[in-house]
Amino acid sequence: MEHTSPLERILRGIALTAVVVFFMFPILWIVLMSLQTNETILRSPPSMVFEPTLSNYQAIISGQLTGNTATLEIKFMGNLLNSIILSVGSVALALLLGVPAAYAFARHKFRGSEDIAFTLLSFRFAPPLLVLLPLTIIFQQIGLADTYIGLIWVYQLICLPLILWIVRGYFEDISPDVEHAYRIAGHSWFATFRHIALPLARPGIAAAGLLAFIFAWNNFIFALVLASADKQPVTVGALAFITASGIQYGQIAAAIVLSIAPTLALALYAQRYLVEGLSLGAVKG
Amino acid sequence: MYEKEKGLVEAYRRGGMNRRTLVKSLGALGMSASTAAILVNASATKALAADFDWKQHSGKSVKLLLNQHPYTDAMIANLDNFKELTGMEVTYDVFPEDVYFDKVTAALSSGSSEYDAFMTGAYMTWTYGPAGWVEDLNEWITDASKTNPSYNWEDMIEGVRKSCAWNGQPGGALGSDDAKQWCIPWGYEQNNLAYNTAMMEKAGIDVPTNLDELIEAAAKAQAGNDGIYGIGVRGSRSWATIHPGFLSGYANFGEVDLTMSDDGKLAAAMNSAGSKDFHAKWVKMIQDSGAPDWSTHTWYQVGTDLGAGKSAMIYDADILGYFMNGGDNAMAGQLAYAPFAANPDASAPTPNIWIWSLAMSKFSRDKDAAWHFLQWASGPEHGLFGATQMDFVNPVRESVWADAGFRDRLSSTYPGYVDMHDVSAPGASIKFTAQPLFFDLTTEWAASMQKMVAGEVPVDEGLDQLADSVNSQLKEAGLG
Fold first, then answer.
1. Which architecture characterizes domain B191-352+432-476 according to CATH?
2. Coil, strand or helix: which one is A71?
3. Which of A220, A236, A246 is opposite residue B307, by nearest beta carbon?
4. Residue-level pLDDT at A122
5. Contact B114 A38 (CB under 8 A)
6. Are A246 and B113 inside 8 Å of each other by CB?
7. What is the 3 state secondary structure string of chain B?
8. How far is A86 from chain B, CA to nearest CA, in Å?
9. With pLDDT > 90 as the criterion, what percentage of chain A qualifies?
10. pLDDT at residue B10 above 70?
């Protein structure tokens, strides 16, 4: 049994605390800012002592932003809802299309398979504006401009290649012997895919899904160019607190806290599955 | 409406009393100021309808692309009156300023017909106009059948109105006879001084009246107050660093950015002797009394520091100082304003200006209907409503500036603001040379300034290098 001295334990504790503080401090500072008024945030020198207020959250949730001159209407909660619709919708669609495609690319070698896979990956290389300006015109012609469906479709440029390439790697790492054994027992390839390949690749699918969700959540340019103000995500909505009459730091901080909450919750939730999936790791080649 | 109130409003419409007296009288009858103002505006709207067929586009709809701004708020607050007047529907998208111009550029460059009209800066039309993305509004302004007789185009402050018109020729004078009116001025910003009265008093200094005095006052204010810096000016690597105080002072010495030869070729003028003197003083002022992190300062930092009591003065947009004197700013109510002529030999300030304007998209499906909206939004009635009831400051119309109610309202809470405007308005215009490389060259100018302030390059040498680079870019583009 490994023996650690009390001094070593203390030093290790201090080192771990220092690392946690270093990485978590910006988030802690943002949380503290979200509980202060602009006046206390801008105090010089800054101070950790203040009277906490929920006015920033109240302003965001009620949609009323009190600026230096007048009260502005801010639709941040609408932006948050848009982000959820767009991210969840695009990841769900990408999983639906990408996971079977990844399985096909991993297991079935067919003519042009590498070319198709690379073409899908190349969507990630193209500068977004290069694609978006022609898309604006096409979307207007086919009636998809300023619709959630149109946006979710375009978001596949982000989500689909990620899911396809990550999950393909996981499928390739799984030994085909397990699937062959199941097929010999008389099951169809689809049943094999569903009952053997999918559960074994679950950690990879979860990781790819989470990553795609984060990328989709952080996207800025697609909705900005293709949609009206009422379909903008939080990445665009958060900028509404920077106004000509001043920057509302407290409300920006509250908006950040609210906008990272879903991603954080999902990461914590998916992390559980990731660990579980990995611990159940089946036969390795 | 009760008879007494009706009588008062009718008297106002006939010219029997001024707006201020009317609002006061309605107040005496128990009506709140805001209700009275809306009532008066509705009355003005009815008066408008008497001379012009505002209903000719009834049932139609226009869509606007707007920047999140107090001017937009003022327009939205008054929009029901437009709808009632015209029978038209108006929808709009409001985007934050940080992404606003990206949205506009994307919409215009893709030829999108989604938006009929949009907010823009006059500088941006130097790109949009020649690209064929916006309409020349002269066609509508000069058409009596499309523009209401009380629109009074000449009421727009001359320098502001002309600054929105360009003939599209690189180096062409703004507002020339052959100029195209790419946009209509809506609200504008002059660049002058806003200062913290308590800090100036504590340091025992008077308001500076020229650049040398400003440099001295900034140093004294910094020395006489703990933990502050003397003067706030912008410093980020952006064209926006050049256009406010810097160019206003520069132009006051008669200096220009570019010169044009007889054959129409442009050349850099930043390395003239006068320009070098001005730059040297400006750089020294920032080094001695500017923000320690000056090179990151944009509109926001300059304003926030003044409002938070971290700087004694700013030489920047007047409305930035206006905003910082209200709300929950620590220094709210402690700021004052002064016109500023950097050159001691100049008779008056010559502020360079930023103009929030309205433009019509070339891709609009119904331009006449869009013009109905534009002429209402930039008309005298809405200008007065915005200026007196909202924060539509600075208005672009002489008639609004002449309104006693507006002047009194400003003077009571923004000391010196009205005088500052009156003194500097005659010299207010865009001082840059209109040409398509405007944003690139001006951003490079800001980058050079950063090097000079950081001491990486002497001012003389830095300006010579800048001029060489500008000249080579102009040549490459066929402009020099």
1. 3-Layer(aba) Sandwich (3.40)
2. strand
3. A246
4. 84
5. no
6. no
7. CCHHHHHHHHHHHHCCCCHHHHHHHHHHCCCCHHHHHHHHHHHHHHHHHHHCCHHHHCCCEEEEEEECCHHHHHHHHCHHHHHHHHCCEEEEEEECHHHHHHHHHHHHHCCCCCCCEEEEECCCHHHHCCCCCECCCHHHHCCCCCCCCCCCHHHECHHHHHHCEECCCCCCCCCCCCCEECCEEEEEECEEEEEEHHHHHHHCCCCCCCHHHHHHHHHHHHHHCCCCEEEECCCCCCHHHHCCHHHHHHHHCCCCCEEECCCCCEEECCCCHHHHHHHHHHHHHHHHHCCCCHHHCCHHHHHHHHHHCCEEEEEEEHHHHHHHCCCCCCCCCCEEEECCCCCCCCCCCCCCCEEEEEEEECCCCCHHHHHHHHHHHCCHHHHHHHHHHCCCCCECEHHHHCCHHHHHHHHHHCCCHHHHHHHHHHHCCCCCCCCCCHHHHHHHHHHHHHHHHCCCCCHHHHHHHHHHHHHHHHHHCCCC
8. 19
9. 44
10. no
ipTM above 0.90, yes or no: no
Per-residue tokens: B126: 């130097």
Instruction: Using DSSP, state whether A284 is helix, strand or coil.
Output: strand
Evaluate whether B53-188+356-402 and B191-352+432-476 have a shared fold.
Answer: yes
Mean pLDDT taken over chain B: 92
pLDDT tens-digit readout, B113-163: 999 999 999 999 999 999 999 999 999 999 999 999 999 999 999 999 999
For chain A, the residues whose C-beta falls within 8 A of a C-beta of chain B are: 37-39, 42-44, 66-70, 72, 129, 132-134, 136-137, 140, 145-146, 220, 224-225, 228-230, 232, 236, 239-240, 242-247
Give the pLDDT score at B446: 97
Per-residue pLDDT of B438-473, as tens digits, reads 999 999 999 999 999 999 999 999 999 999 999 999
Looking at residue B119, its amino acid is: M
Answer whether B34 touches A (CB < 8 Å): no
Mean pLDDT of B201-224: 97
Architecture of domain B53-188+356-402: 3-Layer(aba) Sandwich (3.40)
Domain ranges within chain A, ordered by starting residue: 6-73, 76-279
Domain ranges within chain B, ordered by starting residue: 53-188+356-402, 191-352+432-476
Residue A284: its pLDDT value, please? 45
Mean pLDDT of B172-178: 96
Can you give the pLDDT at residue A72? 66
Q: Please check whether residue A242 is in contact with residue B96, taking contact to mean a CB–CB distance below 8 angstroms.
A: yes
User: A36, A245, A252: which to substitute to probe chain B, counting the most B Cβ within 10 Å?
Assistant: A245
Nearest-CA distance B318 → chain A (Å): 12
Given CB atoms, is B109 within the 8 Å cutoff of chain A? yes
Task: Identify whether the C-beta of residue B462 lies closer than 8 Å to the C-beta of residue B452.
Answer: yes
Indicate the helix (H) or strand (E) that contains A56.
helix A55-62
At B123, phi and psi to the nearest 5?
-60, -35
Q: Which of A173-182, B367-376, B403-412 comes out lowest in average pLDDT?
A: A173-182
Strands of chain A (E only): list them.
64-66, 71-73, 242-243, 246-247
Fold classified for A76-279 = MetI-like fold (1.10.3720)
For A134, name the nearest residue in chain B, comparing CA atoms only: B110
pLDDT below 70 — which residues of chain A?
1-2, 65-72, 272-285
Of B6-10, B15-19, B288-292, B438-442, where does mean pLDDT reach its minimum?
B15-19
What confidence category does residue B431 fall into, taking pLDDT thresholds of 50, 70 and 90?
Answer: very high
